[in-house]
Amino acid sequence: MQHEVITPSILYYGTPVMLLSTLNEDGTTNLSPLSSSWALGDCLVLGVGIQGKAFENLSRHPECVINLPDASMWEQVEGLGRYTGIYPVPGEKRMMGFEFCDDKFAVSGLTPQSSIRVEPDKIAECPLQIEAAVQHIRIPEHTPFMAIVEVKALKVHVHTRLISGLNKINPEKWNPLIYNFRHYYGLGERHGESFRAEK
């Protein structure tokens, strides 16, 4: 197999999309689409742009909900992509086509749902919802336009159709929305399982 060195403008090589709920100053919930995250145990690490409302809200109120949409929700996710909760819209964001929106539930057609352990609302339509508390926020010197946000999962809510046993999610039924070089995908067919896969 032959390779070639390139310099892509982005490295969104295929990660799950999330809609991050954070708390606004007035007690309402802001929604921010994100595609940079990973999880290990009950720790999740999020990549959050520092010019957005999510970063501002997390810095002030260290709670959030990680709402994970399935592949069928891509149009609702994309519908949120052009909006920011920051007013006035920062110049750089305005030049990229962003507009201010103070009610992202209304503009996306999504439904707020009260959380149990945190103040920001969950998104009712998302099959997986993770209530979380911020543990640490770091802005790397080499990439000062984004923050690395470490959170701890407090409560995990799963749509009943995805549950396959006590505290287990059925991977055959969960089809996360994947962001792959700025295109949306679901999962293809199953190819196999890890030796640690739960039976």
UniProtKB/TrEMBL annotation:
Q: Does the keyword Flavoprotein apply?
A: yes
Molecular function GO labels: FMN binding; oxidoreductase activity, acting on the CH-NH group of donors, NAD or NADP as acceptor
Give UniProt keywords alphabetically: Flavoprotein
Entry-linked InterPro entries: Flavin_Rdtase-like_dom, Flavoredoxin, Split_barrel_FMN-bd
Q: Which cofactor does it need?
A: FMN
Q: Name one Pfam family in it.
A: Flavin_Reduct
Query: By its UniProt entry, which Gene3D superfamilies does this protein fall under?
Result: Electron Transport, Fmn-binding Protein, Chain A
Record carries keyword Flavoprotein: yes
Q: Where is the Flavin reductase like domain?
A: 13-187
The similarity annotation says:
Belongs to the flavoredoxin family.
Output this protein's name. Flavin reductase family protein
Q: Which organism is it from?
A: Paenibacillus taichungensis
